[in-house]
Amino acid sequence: MNAAVCTKYGSPDVLQVRNVDEPRVGISDVLIRIHAAAVTASDIFIRSAIPNARLAMRIVARLAIGLTRPRRPILGAVLAGEVESVGARATKFRAGDRVWAFTLMRMSCYAERIALPETAKLLGLAPSNLSFAEAAAIPYGGLISAYFLQPANIAAGANVAVYGASGANGTFAVQFAKHRGARVTGVCSGQNVELVKSLGADRVVDYTDPNARVDEEYDLVFDAVGRRKTSAIREVLRDALTPTGRMLSVDDTLPRVKRADLELLKELTETGAIKPVIDRVYSLAQVAEAHRYVELGHKKGNVIIAMSP
């Protein structure tokens, strides 16, 4: 089968599409034909070995993922596809089931097929109303944002700001907060204002506008991008909290994503409460180009790899 292999750490050009062995299917595994995979910020960090991080963080990262190249050379942690076959003792899925998954450090989604244990924590039936590409655009930002926003217990009428509202995390966060009945301010660049409005934001602030103002108080500010993409407006938002308000950031902790949140995403998608946002779709052969685009840091929502035309 074809797969994009990360041959070493470095620029997007280290990704090479090669013919590799088909995955081995264990007795409790499911074999999935991958139709679409997401290219995420985490993929970029792994491929590049986080070159801009502090030395200690780079050392820890390489100890975790591989010293000179990733131990899991096929990157990609989010997929949508179809079950081709199941192992002799697998009972949860059947051939033909449409599924999605977040494979975490197992990665291996930049490939035509993958074998996963049927008990994998973040493997489930995909939303019935989405294409494979659309399904692949939900789990990464959805699960990360749900980890932070679910415990926040956003109340109807709350005033919520989402910094980085046009990215994979932010587009979900805006929709989730609106679903909970909040009044939402989205913060993004000027070119993405209309997109964020279309997701339900009541107000949009262009962080690149030197005259932009924040003249409200917020019960919750969610920083969906973290320190890697900050601006003066981010600090203004921190000072615009109500006396009991909270600021949450994706930098606060490593998200511990849960099966229950994947099931929540399915429900919210099927009921129309959230919708996927796709910026661009690339073929597997264009995986290096896809990484170059995501690395620019200006994508809207998600970038998808389609395994077949």
Give the number of helices.
9
Silhouette: globular
The proportion of strand residues reads 25-35%
The largest sheet is: 7 strands, mixed
Can you describe this structure?
The protein has helices spanning 41-48, 55-65, 132-136, 139-149, 168-179, 193-198, 232-238, 259-270, 287-295; strands spanning 2-6, 15-19, 29-39, 78-86, 98-102, 113-117, 123-125, 159-163, 183-188, 203-206, 218-223, 241-249, 278-283, 302-306. It has two domains: 2-138 and 276-306, Medium-chain alcohol dehydrogenases, catalytic domain (Quinone Oxidoreductase, Chain A, domain 1); 141-249, Rossmann fold (3-Layer(aba) Sandwich), CATH 3.40.50.720. The protein is globular, with a radius of gyration of 19 Å. With 309 residues, it is of the alpha/beta class.
State the main characteristics.
7-stranded mixed sheet; alpha/beta; 309 residues; Rossmann fold; Quinone Oxidoreductase, Chain A, domain 1; single chain; 5-stranded parallel sheet
